[in-house]
Design goal:
It contains 13 helices and 8 strands. It has 408 residues and is mainly α. The chain has a domain of 155 residues.
Amino acid sequence: MQRFFENKVNGHYLYLNDNNVPILLPCLFARYTRHSLLSVYRTVEQNTKTGVSKHLLIEKEIGEQTAYKICNRLGIFLEYIDDYKDKDFISLNTHTALPSEVINDYINDYLINERGKSEQATNKYVEAINSYYNWLSYYFNNKPKYIGIKSNYRKIARNNTSIPLLVNYFLPATRELLYANCSSLLQQIVLRNAGELGCRTAENLGFLLDDFKANKREYTGLRSLFKQLKKNPEQEEFKYHLNSIWTKYSRSRTLYIPRHLLKLMCRYYEQERPKSDSPHLFVSNSNQNRGDKISTQFSSDTFLEIKNKVQQKISKNPKRYDDIQEIHSDYSYHVMRHSFATDIFYNLCQGQNKSYESITTTSAVYIETARRMGHKVDARGGGDVTKRYIHSCGYRDALQKGVVCGLA
């Protein structure tokens, strides 16, 4: 899709699909917002006699600049939805009926975790998207959406404000300390999948046991890779196709699993995995869901548990861990993935004998890093992502040289 501000005739933003056909409701919303200079807000009114609260939608006046920014941020959100093409029901055609969970994933996981937006910047996107969906409820009786920053992401967003003081990067030694404190192979593997493969939380569900077909091609499952592992003792890396069903934006990619990690997966399968008919490698060991595929939240919960365990050990015996970088309380599972991305970016720069500070979004280094991470390679937000990699590389160098102390 494309968005642009058409000022000569319409005087507002237009949003077009890939066939250059206007997307009707967003265009009508942009016209309403710019020409009426109104925005629909949700408010709560309490009956003083009964004490019952009632949610109401009301129109409030806004300025021209606010109206422009609301429509611009709505367009950025629609581009994000368009990136999901052909995945489940998420598309521009269905965007008005999206569950609140999908929209909140954009606000929290994408804007805050992946794009590093501050709390202030994210709140502006919340305002813009709420304005649009409240308008749909107010004029078209659409089901209301409850959109906002989740409490566990608010701390991350606030820390994003203080970048460069807080950079999402763990040194390899720090990652190894986290792995060493896992209480099960499953916990260790899902953390390593982020730190050594760049997996998102939900992508851990994409590790399938049997060979499978995708886009009319056959791909190797984990059982077959386990056979290769035992048959080829000299092979150090194994390719695995992460199907687009399990990734964001329906963007499949190849994972290059190092031998030691595949051996851990094989050990888990043979020794720790509960008996199950599930096609997924990773299944729950809890009494309630034993044998079912792990939840999308499992990896995040695991990271939180292990991070807290390590922090407690460090606080009890600081001298023993005085050479370990600070593990910030507000770090999330995504830091492991970003650390992997930073290492890929850094090593590619080294391999091509280039300074990481000279890399642009058109560079082969950036494009290859984006491919390995499952990012879309285009101009949208590409500069912001590249800046974050460059900054993290500088922080990585400083940590390794012992220049940075007491910062996470």
